[in-house]
Description:
Blueprint: H1 17-43, H2 55-68, H3 72-84, H4 111-125, E1 134-136, H5 138-143, E2 151-161, E3 178-187, E4 192-202, E5 215-222, E6 230-236, H6 238-252, E7 256-257, H7 263-273, E8 276-278, E9 282-285, E10 288-291, H8 293-301, E11 305-307, E12 317-320
Antiparallel strand pairs: 1-5, 2-3, 2-6, 3-4, 4-5, 5-7, 6-12, 8-11, 9-10
Helix pairs in contact: 2-3, 6-7
Amino acid sequence: MSSEGRAAGADSVSFSPKTATDLAAGFSSSGEHGRLLNYLTDLGVPDQQYKYQSGKKFYYHLANVFARLKLYPLAMKCFFKAVRVNGGGMDGLQLSAAGLPPRDGALAVSSKDDTVISKKMLVVRARRTSKRSKRTSFQQIISNFNDGKTAVAYALLFHVKQPAPGKRKIFVWVNTGHTFITLIKYNTDSTYASASFGFYPDKDQLLSATPIAPTTSATFKDDAGHLWDEVLGKFISRRNFENILELTRKFEGMTYNLNQQNCTDFGLQAASLAGIHITGTSGRWPLGRGNNPAVTGQSILKGKISNEAKTAEEQLFMDQTVDRQEEGYNFDY
């Protein structure tokens, strides 16, 4: 995605290649600015906070909004744009299959986003709340990315839904929360593919995946519509992307164990492969202990996160909905 252009002063007017590129980037950025605001209008999101902002804060706010709308590829595009504003950038990050940084425009807002927004509008207007996650498989997950197109970038998001948002309560009645991930592959033609999924118990009996019978069969489920309280996101290398898919393949053949092989264990291992590390994720419950969404979410809220980065540009996208709500808007669709 091209970086935001800077206005040329009277003493610096020139038609050198650099200035021409900057001017083109400026026009592109201005067009994207309006296009993104139109998305907010189309979805009925209050835009008072965004109309009068520009630059890094504008794009980071939009990344937050689109992540809450579960439009994760668009959210990470806005985050990418935010990082590149004012000379910052990810040009040194080895994202693509060829080991090269993304070309200008490769992560631009595109007709693919227009289509996605149109579909989301129908959901919002119909007031259809998030559906229950349906069973999926490793083969279905990987088929999303076998589109025959050349990748220019990859991203991972790590999501946590706590049983009681903002609290360390490991369970609320039968609700223990959930941890899941999203993988995104961006292509050179500005299209993209994504999959949101998590590791679940596939109960063999009534008390399976409880402290009384912690071990049971397992399955993956499609969590594209799942709610979350905290999210971390990051652009990753092709190698990391493939390693996370390999981890997913291995987990498909494993059993689920409430204490040591649960949804949070899978999510934390995937995040670790992307260089994201969260400390203090384990807690106790009757007859057991282990990593869990409640404590993991609290650690994120308290900043107990480290980001393994080979370059200064490998920044971490973070958002949480515990104490940040968009006034008058329901993001549960």
